[in-house]
Amino acid sequence: MIWLVVISMALLAAAAILIPFIRPEVEVEAAAPAQPLALKDRLAEIDKQAAEGELSDAEAAALRLEAQRRVLAEARSGETIARPLSPHGRRLVGGVSALVIAVGGIGLYALLGRPDLARPVAEVAAAGDTSLERMIAALEDQVRETPDDAEMWGILGGAYAQAERYDSAAGAYARAAVLAPEEARLHSALGEVLVQVAQGVVTDDALVAFRAAVARDPSDPRARYFLALRKDQTGDRDGAMDDWVTLLNSAPAGAPWVPQVRALVDQVAAERGIDVADRITGSAAAGSPGS
Predict the structure, then answer these.
(1) Do the Cβ atoms of 195 and 203 come closer than 8 Å?
(2) 206 near 194, Cβ under 8 Å?
């Protein structure tokens, strides 16, 4: 039963990641930057909730970390505005993210899963109620019982992401990263949901998370992909292409994300009138559309 729940959640996560990227684009006015005062009010609110016992010290620390990072980002000035993705680019990013979430999530649970801690979720499913919000509620109960368990906070972050509650997912992943700061996957997961919050733009906050991930694991493919995307969005197109090609050439055999990244590279190369086929080697070269 627990594997049915895990696989179902992974597929829901993939769908939730993909849907925002393939929705028809609508014109919206640019939101005004958050005012520092509002962010300081948020810090005060966190302190109040902690004082009243609504948040544990660890939960409050994670939320303060996220809020303080935003304060620092707002204080920066004169930086290049990120270039939004094209509709096609968003679809490709969404496809890669969805596949990584679905395949990677099931694979990670197979290696690292702890069914004993996931028992409340299985009990909910056995009772005939498999709604995502019920699962989230069960996971929230679990992290209240084990507030220092980084893995459970990471699982909760994934569940929030499935429900498109990306701000909550960021808070949960930030909490997990505070508890297990050397786990690269938690930092890159945090960065990915921050990209979701920003509708495909690799923001300064996401950049911090991805850099933290590669500092701990230079081979982390998710962080490397989005760091290259950041370069592309901020005008360094050649640097982005070089990094994507390097990522493809270093991919292990059978890596499930290779076809999507290769498709993105081929599409971008075609749009720019360049040929990178002879630069791609190994299994990524074998996956070329023309092979």
Answers:
(1) yes
(2) yes
